[in-house]
Structures are given as C-alpha cells and as structure tokens.
Amino acid sequence: MTSSNPDNKNGFVVLNNVSKSYGNFRALDNISFEIKEGEIFGYIGPNGAGKTTTMKILTGLLSDFQGEVRIGNYQVPKQKSEVHKLLGYLPQNVAFQDWRTVNHALKTFGKLSGLSDAEVESRIPEILGLVGLSDVRHKKISQLSGGMIQKVGLAQALLHDPKLLVLDEPLGGLDPLSRNQFKDIVLKLGKKGTTILFSSHILSDVQDVADRIGIINHGQIKQIGTLNELKSRLSGQKVVEVLLAYASDKWQEFKTIKNVQNVEQPSVGRILLNLEDGADADQVVNDIVHSVVKLKVRVRGITLLSPRLDEIYLNYVREGENA
Amino acid sequence: MKLPLLFVDELRGFYKSKVMLFLWIGLPVIAILFRFVQSSTTGQDIPFTVISTLVVSSLAGTLASVMLAVSIINEKNKNVYELFLIRPLKRRDLMLAKFLSVYLCVVVASMISVFVGVTTDYLTTGILSATILDSTVRSLATSLSMLAVACSAGVLIGVASPSVMVGAILVIYGGNQISVIPLVPTLLNLPEATLFTVGLAAAVTAVLVGTAIGLFERKQF
Q: Domain A6-232 carries which CATH code?
C-alpha cells in the first residue's frame, strides 16, 4: 500500500517504488512512503519483513536497489556524502572495534561527522549524561554489557545532532528503565524537530512514541497511518461493549437501536452490539445511553471497542501469511 | 579529507595490539637468538643484518598480513564499518588508513630489528664498514618492499574473504607467495636490483590496494 496522504507530498524522507532483491529473494517489493520533517515514524514488521533493508538503503549502506530515495533535497545513494551530514544511525547489532574506549569511539565518530575538537569535547559529556553512561566514559567498550553497548550506539548516533535519526531495533537488549529513558529521548528529539525513523518489535513502545506507524511484511508496506487511522481502517465492523451491573434480559431491547446490526451476550452481563457498516459510533453510543436510561438498567460501562496495536499488527501480518 | 584522522585512529588500535608487541620486541629478540644459534652451529659469521632482514621479511610479513586480513574480516562480519560508512568519508580512506597504519608499524619494527642487527654486529666484531652499511640499506629496502606487498595482500584478502578461516588460509598460502615477487629482480641478477625491487613492490602494492579499494567501494553492507 502506498501512502496517499496529501500532507506527505513534501516529505523529508521519500521512498518511491523501492525494490531490493538478494538473489531470488525479494526483500523489498515496490515500497513507497514518506516521512515528514520532525515526524517520529515507527516501522514494524516480523523478522525478514524488510525493515533493516529499508534502513540500509536510506543510510546508503545498500546502493544496488531499484526506485527513488530522497532525504531532504538529496538523492540516495547519488548524493550520499550530503545525506550523511544529516544522518544519525543506530544499526540493529551495533559493534565497535575491541580496543576502543567509549570516549575514544565518540571522539572518532564525532570528528568524522564534522564536529570540531571543541564541539566533540563539549558534546561527549552531554550525550553520555543523556543516555546514562557518564560513569563508563573511559572504559573499553568490549568490557560493557550488551545494553550499555546499545547506549553507546545511541550516543554516537546523537553526537552530531543529526536532522534524521534512523534507529534499527534500538530497544533490543535494554532493560525497562533504559527503554523508558530511550523513549523520553526520542520524544524530546521529536519535539525539537528531529525526524526519526525507528523499527521495533516491541509494539507498545512504537505506540508510545510514534506519530505515524508503517507496517511492513514480505517486503511490502501493508499499512501506514497514525494509530487511530490504523484502528479505524482495521475495524470493518465497529463493536460497542455494554457491561451491565447485574444480569437482566432487557439487553434484548438494544436490538431496536438504529444502526445496530445484532446484539449478543458472550458472558452474563457483558453485551456486545455489532454496528452496521458506516454507522456513526458516537451517535449509537449516545442512543445506547438513552436506551439504558429508558429501560432503567444499571450499567458499569459503555465502551466503543477498538483494536490494540498488536491486534492491528497481527491482522496485517497474518493477512500477508494467508496471501 | 578524513584519511589523516582515520590513519592516526587505526595506528592507535594497531600499535598496542598483541601482534605488534611481538613485532616490536619479539623480532629483535628472535633475531639475536638466531645470531647465536648460527654462530655456534656453523662457526661462520653471516652479517647479522642479513639474518635480521630474513626474519623481518618472513615473520613480520606473515604476521602483518594475517593481522590485517583477520582484522578487516572480523570488522566486516561484526558490522563495525557501518558506523563509519554512514558518515561523510570516502570508503577508500578506511582501507588506506588500515594499510598505512599497519605498514608504518612493521616499517618501524623492521628498523628496530635492523638497528639491533647493526649494533650487535658492531659490538661483536668491532667493524662497521661502508660495505656492511650499504648491504644493510639494500637489505632493508628489500625487506620493506616485501612487507608492503604482504600488507597489501592482507588488505585485499581481508576485503574479499567471507570468513576468518578462509582469509587466514589465503594469506598464509597466497599472500606469502605474492610477497616474494619483489625479489624477482634480485633472483634475475639485474643491475640495480634493489631499485627494481622497490619499483616492482610499489607497483604490485598499488595494484593490490587499488583492487581492495575497488571491491570495498562496491561492497553492500
């Protein structure tokens, strides 16, 4: 599916009909999407779906692909060196040379990204403080835990204050506290105007920080949109749940409410009203409230059920499996 | 131009590695041991500088090329290069920095070894003639030529090999053979053989490093 949102016409990151094959395996199949400047874009999909390949194409690490990729005003991979000035990247399995200390690695990468000696010296303590690694500044990276190495990876990506941050599974190996810390950093950068593309298997984390979400499977973009857009697209039939305070047969009366297709009671006191296609859910909920008052039924809650992100994700991923 | 930065960076990584420590200290020690073994077994005095050159060329060449190849293969397989390649630098600078830093390290190790040789010869024989010094310079030039080819072969094999095992086998059985190419003018008894040796080594090194850079430029990460 291609994003057709007219707001995205001037995307900061643009992928247009991008395909990439490894031998006979088609890793990306004509994908097109855009990320607006300052947007936090969550990219989700199962293993082998094409997330990392997309990111490697964006970063210029893979250059033999078909299609058009643009970051800012620059074409990838043609104007790679210009693109690299805008880019911060945290790979999925970040690795450093064994002999490097945290300080030395950050110095090298800072200078390679174009920072002056003075800028590097002032940025390193700032960034290490941000990712919670101030104590290990002069330690060898090879002596750090996997989670800490991941944080050093994040630090090198943030060091030069990039305009576009590409984070491939950045939360892997992080403890819950570090995950929250990471999400705070991402949200802060997003507010500051940094464009962020990040992939994750941890759907709740994507849900917490992403402005928009892209779901990829088998090399194809299945859906793109805000969480609410994805929810509304998935829920072909809207369902309202009414929880009665006590068992009563009066729920049968809900069948007479306009735009309610059918009513069922899966368990005692829990009533589900399936709405007709195109029904205005808010109006129906309003009618249910009136009906409840009229029938003098005591209720504990009325909820318009909407799918969670993991349900949306599984729906599109399974759709791909069955295709 | 990021080459100077990368070069100093790589130098910092290589000069204190275990392999380089062996080259700094172990080579002169082994050369001295050879000297005394040779003196006691044959009773003939071969100039110590010749032994030093022999040891440096064979051991240092093999070690430097294996170290380069293994380091490049490991870094490639561990995705270490990704963090470099997403920055505004030229890919060729990465490989050039590796080659130059290791080559500089082995050049210095060779100098130390040959200096130890000259000093030992002088201390044991009391002679330091112009002929010995001339032969020392020629030996050193030959040795450094062979080392340049060995290092460039290490870079090429490192870039091309998929695994450490394949790389190590290729370096030991292929790289070492290639590194004797500069000896051809000497074997053919050409006039000014040392000059030809240096020229031939420079050409072979340029071809090998150039091919390695070409492969690295095209590599998909």
A: 3.40.50.300
Scanning every residue of chain A, which has its alpha carbon at the shortest distance from the alpha carbon of B78?
A95
pLDDT tens readout for residues A124-135: 999 999 999 999
Instruction: Report which residue type is found at B124.
Output: T
Cβ separation A91–B79 shorter than 8 A: yes
pLDDT at A6: 39
Among A63, A81, A104, beta carbon nearest to B88: A81
**pLDDT recorded at residue A5:** 41
Q: Has the ipTM of the complex gone over 0.90?
A: no
Question: Would an 8 Å CB–CB cutoff place B219 in contact with chain A?
Answer: no
User: B4 to chain A: nearest residue by CA?
Assistant: A112
Distance from CA of B165 to the nearest CA of A (A): 20
Looking at CATH, the fold of the domain delimited by A237-305 is given as Alpha-Beta Plaits (3.30.70)
The pLDDT tens digits for A210-228 are 999 999 999 999 989 998 8
Cα–Cα distance between A151 and A146 in angstroms, integer? 9
Question: Among candidates A284, A311, A128, A296, which has minimal Cα distance to A215?
Answer: A311
Nearest to A61 among B2, B86, B88 (CB): B86
